[in-house]
Design goal:
Layout (H helix, E strand, L loop, with lengths): L11 H23 L5 H31 L10 H7 L2 H19 L17 H5 L6 H31 L4 H30 L12 H26 L8 H32 L2 H13 L1 H19 L2 H5 L4 H32 L16 H23 L11 H5 L4
């Protein structure tokens, strides 16, 4: 396969792989959905958390790029087109997100039931009535639409400048300076909206529950996942003859990100759990108590996959610089799957408990416990196939290396 003219051509096997994932995923999800037509909450919540997972994967790719633009992180220049292509999934994921929220609102979010706000009704909820100014369908959709439009707009500006740098060799520095301001704005916007969107789309599934660390927890989870995905992509590209300037130094630093943010995830997991356990406030403890009682294997499996395994796989320098990349591939796959499981346990248990028995019963009584089945696995494969194809398509539309970037030489000679 040719790398002439610095152009990436989608390999036939890669294109077919993305289609196979997409089609197989749709088939499995359809079979799983047909078996669960009596449980629309499971169906809509499955769509929700898978869509959030891949949408945030693209969004964090834009954050990764922006942080290195603002911080003069020249080492990423050789492969900056990888996070660029990943971030272009955001508009697609954003449209899907709006559709899921619109059609699935009443099946996912307990607070959307108008009976909860009638003081004279049997289902009146004083706590939710106090949150009504924030948790109401109108304002909820306005926020969601605002997130998608702002994210997509800033991503488009970053991509436009990147393309212009290829077309205008003499303006590389000026376009970099322009991108720096856009990236700075994106970082500030992300700092706010990554938290508020996670409150809206995930935390409000159990509207009585809250955690001040939840936004940070989700950010760390998706940042380490994004680095794991980039690791797999770079290994794929270098093995197929592209980006030959990428060295062990680049892989080593991505590996350090994967290791460091796996530890950071564990820190936030423990901090959130410990503070809630120690305070012992019912509105807070119900989140962990319900999962420990009904989904103990899933909860502790997340700890093993997202912290324990990456910690021991990636702790040595040699593991991150091994030319075979076997350890890095294994660690990346484990991290991606582990955090996908974490998004499942953040959403599905609460949605099912709320819709089946009401918010007042979230901490006691019998609840329907649903294990991961054909539907969830099918959605994972379908979304992975869609994300992969959109990534490959966008990667092939532009030169693989930003040849006029002012830090390209620094990236080529990079060493740690």
């Amino acid at each position: 396969m040719s790398t002439a003219n610095n152009t990436f051509t989608i390999p036939g096997k890669a294109r077919n792989f993305s289609f196979i994932l997409l089609i197989a995923g749709i088939v499995l999800a359809a079979i799983g959905a047909a078996m669960n037509l009596d449980n629309p909450t499971r169906l809509w919540t499955g769509l929700l958390y898978n869509n959030i997972f891949f949408l945030m994967l693209g969004l964090v790719a834009a954050l990764f790029l922006s942080a290195h633009i603002v911080g003069y992180g020249g080492w990423v220049t050789l492969f900056r087109r990888v996070p660029e292509a990943m971030m272009l999934y955001v508009p697609v994921g954003g449209i899907l997100m709006l559709l899921i929220l619109y059609f699935g609102l009443h099946h996912i979010y307990h607070w959307s039931d108008p009976e909860l706000y009638n003081p004279n009704g049997p289902h009146y909820d004083a706590i939710l009535d106090g949150k009504r100014a924030f948790l109401n369908p109108g304002f909820f959709f306005i926020r969601a639409l605002s997130y998608i439009l702002i994210w997509s707009g800033l991503i488009w500006l970053l991509r436009r400048n990147s393309i212009q740098s290829d077309l205008n060799p003499s303006q590389g520095v000026q376009l970099y300076q322009s991108s720096k301001y856009i990236a700075a704005i994106f970082i500030v916007v992300y700092a706010v909206t990554s938290s508020t969107s996670s409150w809206d789309w995930i935390m409000s599934i159990q509207p009585h529950w809250y955690s001040t660390l939840f936004g940070w927890y989700n950010f760390i989870s998706m940042f380490v996942t994004c680095n794991a995905v980039m690791m797999l992509i770079l290994i794929f590209l270098t093995r197929n003859g592209y980006l030959q300037g990428i060295t062990n130094e680049h892989f080593h630093d991505l590996g350090k990100f994967m290791f460091g943010f796996s530890v950071a995830w564990a820190y936030l997991f423990y901090s959130q759990f410990m503070l809630i356990w120690y305070a012992n406030i019912p509105e807070e403890t119900m989140y962990f108590k319900y999962r420990i009682d009904n989904y103990p294997l899933l909860m502790w499996l997340c700890v093993v996959l997202n912290f324990v395994t990456p910690f021991f796989l990636l702790i040595t320098r040699n593991a991150k610089r091994d030319n075979s990349r076997r350890i890095m591939i294994a660690a990346a796959i484990i991290i991606i799957f582990g955090h996908w499981l974490d998004f499942y346990q953040m959403t599905m248990p609460g949605a099912l408990a709320n819709m089946a028995h009401g918010a007042a019963e979230e901490t006691h009584g019998h609840h329907e416990v649903v294990r991961i089945g054909l539907y969830e696995i099918g959605l994972l494969l379908a979304y992975a196939g869609l994300f992969t194809y959109i990534f490959l398509y966008n990667l092939s539309r532009q030169s693989l290396i930003s040849v006029n970037h002012p830090f390209l030489k620094e990236s080529r000679v990079y060493h740690t």
